[in-house]
Automatic annotation (TrEMBL):
Taxonomic lineage: Bacteria, Pseudomonadati, Bacteroidota, Saprospiria, Saprospirales
Species, as recorded: Neolewinella antarctica
All residue ranges annotated as the Glycosyl transferase family domain in the record: 19-183
Protein origin, superkingdom: Bacteria
Protein's recorded name: Glycosyltransferase involved in cell wall biosynthesis
Pfam families noted in UniProt: Glycos_transf_1
Signal peptide: none
Length: 204
Protein backbone atom coordinates (compact mmCIF):
# COMPACT_ATOMS: atom_id res chain seq x y z
CA UNK A 1 0.00 0.00 0.00
CA UNK A 2 1.38 3.38 -0.87
CA UNK A 3 2.08 5.53 2.20
CA UNK A 4 0.09 8.38 0.65
CA UNK A 5 -3.12 6.42 1.16
CA UNK A 6 -2.39 5.78 4.83
CA UNK A 7 -3.84 8.63 6.84
CA UNK A 8 -5.97 8.81 10.01
CA UNK A 9 -9.75 9.24 9.67
CA UNK A 10 -10.74 12.79 8.69
CA UNK A 11 -13.59 12.97 11.19
CA UNK A 12 -14.85 11.32 14.37
CA UNK A 13 -17.45 8.57 14.15
CA UNK A 14 -19.97 8.40 17.00
CA UNK A 15 -20.46 4.65 16.59
CA UNK A 16 -20.45 2.79 19.94
CA UNK A 17 -18.92 -0.28 18.31
CA UNK A 18 -15.24 -1.02 18.94
CA UNK A 19 -13.91 -2.37 15.64
CA UNK A 20 -10.99 -4.78 15.40
CA UNK A 21 -9.27 -5.32 12.04
CA UNK A 22 -6.93 -7.97 10.65
CA UNK A 23 -5.45 -7.93 7.13
CA UNK A 24 -3.44 -10.82 5.67
CA UNK A 25 -3.41 -13.73 3.26
CA UNK A 26 -5.22 -15.94 5.85
CA UNK A 27 -2.32 -18.44 5.95
CA UNK A 28 -2.01 -20.77 8.98
CA UNK A 29 1.04 -18.79 10.14
CA UNK A 30 -1.20 -15.76 10.75
CA UNK A 31 -2.99 -17.71 13.52
CA UNK A 32 -6.48 -16.49 12.78
CA UNK A 33 -7.76 -19.19 15.12
CA UNK A 34 -6.39 -17.13 18.03
CA UNK A 35 -7.92 -13.88 16.81
CA UNK A 36 -11.35 -15.37 16.14
CA UNK A 37 -11.45 -17.33 19.39
CA UNK A 38 -10.41 -14.32 21.47
CA UNK A 39 -12.86 -12.07 19.64
CA UNK A 40 -15.75 -14.40 20.43
CA UNK A 41 -14.75 -14.40 24.09
CA UNK A 42 -14.48 -10.60 24.23
CA UNK A 43 -17.87 -10.35 22.55
CA UNK A 44 -19.51 -12.44 25.28
CA UNK A 45 -18.96 -9.62 27.79
CA UNK A 46 -18.65 -6.66 25.40
CA UNK A 47 -21.29 -7.19 22.67
CA UNK A 48 -20.56 -3.81 21.05
CA UNK A 49 -17.48 -5.11 19.24
CA UNK A 50 -16.88 -6.19 15.67
CA UNK A 51 -14.12 -7.95 13.78
CA UNK A 52 -13.20 -7.45 10.14
CA UNK A 53 -10.84 -9.92 8.45
CA UNK A 54 -9.73 -8.73 5.04
CA UNK A 55 -7.24 -10.09 2.55
CA UNK A 56 -6.60 -12.25 -0.46
CA UNK A 57 -6.73 -15.71 1.10
CA UNK A 58 -9.21 -18.56 0.93
CA UNK A 59 -12.47 -17.03 2.17
CA UNK A 60 -14.37 -20.32 2.10
CA UNK A 61 -11.81 -21.97 4.37
CA UNK A 62 -11.80 -18.95 6.67
CA UNK A 63 -15.59 -19.01 6.89
CA UNK A 64 -15.42 -22.65 8.00
CA UNK A 65 -12.91 -21.72 10.70
CA UNK A 66 -15.16 -18.93 11.96
CA UNK A 67 -18.12 -21.30 12.15
CA UNK A 68 -16.10 -23.98 13.95
CA UNK A 69 -15.06 -21.53 16.67
CA UNK A 70 -18.45 -19.86 17.12
CA UNK A 71 -19.81 -19.86 20.68
CA UNK A 72 -22.74 -22.13 21.41
CA UNK A 73 -24.81 -19.39 23.02
CA UNK A 74 -25.53 -15.75 22.07
CA UNK A 75 -24.52 -12.86 24.30
CA UNK A 76 -26.78 -11.79 27.15
CA UNK A 77 -28.68 -9.32 24.95
CA UNK A 78 -29.33 -11.92 22.28
CA UNK A 79 -27.08 -10.37 19.63
CA UNK A 80 -24.89 -12.42 17.34
CA UNK A 81 -21.20 -11.59 16.94
CA UNK A 82 -20.27 -9.38 14.00
CA UNK A 83 -17.43 -10.83 11.94
CA UNK A 84 -16.98 -9.43 8.45
CA UNK A 85 -14.83 -11.30 5.94
CA UNK A 86 -13.90 -9.70 2.65
CA UNK A 87 -11.34 -9.48 -0.11
CA UNK A 88 -9.35 -9.20 -2.14
CA UNK A 89 -9.21 -5.43 -1.83
CA UNK A 90 -7.52 -2.58 -3.60
CA UNK A 91 -4.93 -0.54 -1.70
CA UNK A 92 -7.43 2.27 -1.35
CA UNK A 93 -10.02 -0.09 0.14
CA UNK A 94 -7.53 -1.44 2.69
CA UNK A 95 -6.70 2.12 3.72
CA UNK A 96 -10.41 2.82 4.13
CA UNK A 97 -10.82 -0.27 6.33
CA UNK A 98 -7.92 0.87 8.51
CA UNK A 99 -9.40 4.35 8.92
CA UNK A 100 -12.73 2.81 9.93
CA UNK A 101 -11.18 0.44 12.50
CA UNK A 102 -10.18 1.09 16.12
CA UNK A 103 -7.41 -1.49 16.57
CA UNK A 104 -5.29 -3.73 14.38
CA UNK A 105 -4.55 -7.38 15.21
CA UNK A 106 -1.58 -9.43 13.99
CA UNK A 107 -0.87 -12.73 15.76
CA UNK A 108 1.61 -14.32 13.35
CA UNK A 109 4.01 -17.11 14.21
CA UNK A 110 6.69 -15.11 12.38
CA UNK A 111 7.01 -11.78 10.56
CA UNK A 112 9.77 -9.73 9.01
CA UNK A 113 9.12 -5.99 8.90
CA UNK A 114 5.35 -6.08 8.65
CA UNK A 115 4.32 -3.51 6.05
CA UNK A 116 0.67 -3.89 7.03
CA UNK A 117 1.56 -2.85 10.60
CA UNK A 118 3.36 0.23 9.30
CA UNK A 119 0.29 1.12 7.26
CA UNK A 120 -1.94 0.63 10.31
CA UNK A 121 0.19 3.02 12.35
CA UNK A 122 0.16 5.58 9.55
CA UNK A 123 -3.64 5.39 9.77
CA UNK A 124 -3.40 6.05 13.51
CA UNK A 125 -4.31 2.51 14.57
CA UNK A 126 -3.04 0.90 17.74
CA UNK A 127 -1.86 -2.67 17.19
CA UNK A 128 -1.82 -5.88 19.19
CA UNK A 129 0.92 -8.05 17.69
CA UNK A 130 3.06 -11.04 18.53
CA UNK A 131 6.77 -10.79 19.23
CA UNK A 132 7.74 -12.75 16.15
CA UNK A 133 10.47 -10.78 14.42
CA UNK A 134 9.35 -7.53 12.81
CA UNK A 135 6.64 -6.25 15.18
CA UNK A 136 9.13 -5.60 18.00
CA UNK A 137 10.68 -2.73 16.03
CA UNK A 138 7.28 -1.20 15.20
CA UNK A 139 5.32 -1.36 18.47
CA UNK A 140 7.78 0.10 20.95
CA UNK A 141 5.51 1.61 23.61
CA UNK A 142 1.95 1.45 24.94
CA UNK A 143 0.84 4.42 22.81
CA UNK A 144 1.41 2.27 19.72
CA UNK A 145 -0.24 -0.87 21.11
CA UNK A 146 0.87 -4.03 22.85
CA UNK A 147 3.20 -6.94 22.08
CA UNK A 148 2.38 -10.47 23.23
CA UNK A 149 4.17 -13.80 22.99
CA UNK A 150 3.56 -16.08 20.03
CA UNK A 151 0.66 -18.50 20.61
CA UNK A 152 -0.32 -16.76 23.87
CA UNK A 153 -4.11 -16.82 23.72
CA UNK A 154 -4.58 -15.49 27.26
CA UNK A 155 -2.36 -12.47 26.57
CA UNK A 156 -4.21 -11.74 23.33
CA UNK A 157 -7.56 -11.93 25.09
CA UNK A 158 -6.40 -9.66 27.91
CA UNK A 159 -4.98 -7.11 25.46
CA UNK A 160 -8.19 -7.03 23.41
CA UNK A 161 -10.35 -6.70 26.52
CA UNK A 162 -8.19 -3.85 27.78
CA UNK A 163 -8.46 -1.97 24.48
CA UNK A 164 -12.23 -2.30 24.48
CA UNK A 165 -12.41 -1.23 28.13
CA UNK A 166 -10.19 1.82 27.47
CA UNK A 167 -12.43 2.84 24.58
CA UNK A 168 -11.87 4.15 21.11
CA UNK A 169 -9.04 6.61 20.47
CA UNK A 170 -10.20 10.10 19.60
CA UNK A 171 -9.04 11.88 16.42
CA UNK A 172 -6.27 13.75 18.24
CA UNK A 173 -4.65 10.58 19.56
CA UNK A 174 -4.94 8.89 16.18
CA UNK A 175 -3.41 11.89 14.46
CA UNK A 176 -0.53 11.90 16.97
CA UNK A 177 0.18 8.22 16.32
CA UNK A 178 0.04 8.79 12.58
CA UNK A 179 2.44 11.73 12.86
CA UNK A 180 4.92 9.61 14.81
CA UNK A 181 4.72 6.91 12.17
CA UNK A 182 5.22 9.38 9.32
CA UNK A 183 8.47 10.57 10.89
CA UNK A 184 9.73 6.99 10.69
CA UNK A 185 8.06 5.37 7.70
CA UNK A 186 6.87 8.02 5.23
CA UNK A 187 8.66 8.12 1.89
CA UNK A 188 10.53 11.29 2.83
CA UNK A 189 11.73 9.72 6.09
CA UNK A 190 12.92 6.56 4.35
CA UNK A 191 14.70 8.69 1.73
CA UNK A 192 16.55 10.59 4.44
CA UNK A 193 17.57 7.37 6.16
CA UNK A 194 18.90 5.92 2.91
CA UNK A 195 20.83 9.11 2.14
CA UNK A 196 22.36 8.98 5.61
CA UNK A 197 23.43 5.37 5.11
CA UNK A 198 24.87 6.22 1.69
CA UNK A 199 26.75 9.18 3.11
CA UNK A 200 28.20 7.09 5.94
CA UNK A 201 29.20 4.34 3.48
CA UNK A 202 30.98 6.75 1.12
CA UNK A 203 32.88 8.33 4.02
CA UNK A 204 34.03 4.99 5.43
Amino acid sequence: MTRRLSTPPPEWSESPTFRFLHVSNFSPAKRLDLIIGAFYEVWQTHPDVSLTIAGDGDIAQLTELIASLAPEHPSSNGHQPEINVSGPHSLTEIADLMRAADAFLLTSDYETQSVVMLEAQLCGLKTIATQCGGPESIVTDSEQGELIDVDDYAALLNAMQKMVHDGRDNPVRRADLSTRAKKLYAASAIRQQLLLIYDQATRA
